[in-house]
Amino acid sequence: MKLYGIPNCGTVKKARAWLDEHGIAYEFVDYKKQSITEAMLSGWLKQVGWQKLLKKTGPTWGQLPDAVKASIKDDASALPLLLDKQNVIKRPVLEHKGKVLATGFNQTDYENLNL
């Protein structure tokens, strides 16, 4: 199991704490140090779609020009932005054997994963 995110993100910290408290082994991948590849992002987009993968609540999204924001309408238009501005990827992404189990952290959702 892999948990993708950045270590100083509060939501990532909550997810890591929950996994640790429940004794669930995982590999943490800091995507500031190990970039997310186009192939990975494409796979994630196919599984969960751009609406679940794109984080619109952070400062990176907020600072984008309105024209860029308006241009994001589907997976194909979101991919270049997600590659270029990886801070707009909803954190964390929990993945197991190539399958996205969750984006972001919600305790109830994690409990329902039966990890």
Structure description:
The protein is an alpha+beta fold. The chain has one domain (2-111): Glutaredoxin. The protein is built from seven helices and four strands; from the N terminus they run βαβαααααββα. Strands 2-1-3-4 form a four-stranded mixed sheet. The radius of gyration is 14 Å and the shape is globular.
SSE blueprint and pairings:
Elements: E1 2-5, H1 10-21, E2 27-30, H2 38-48, H3 50-53, H4 59-62, H5 66-71, H6 75-84, E3 93-96, E4 99-103, H7 107-111
Parallel strand pairs: 1-2
Antiparallel strand pairs: 1-3, 3-4
Helix pairs in contact: 2-6
Provide a concise account of the structure shown.
45% of the residues lie in helices and 15% in strands.
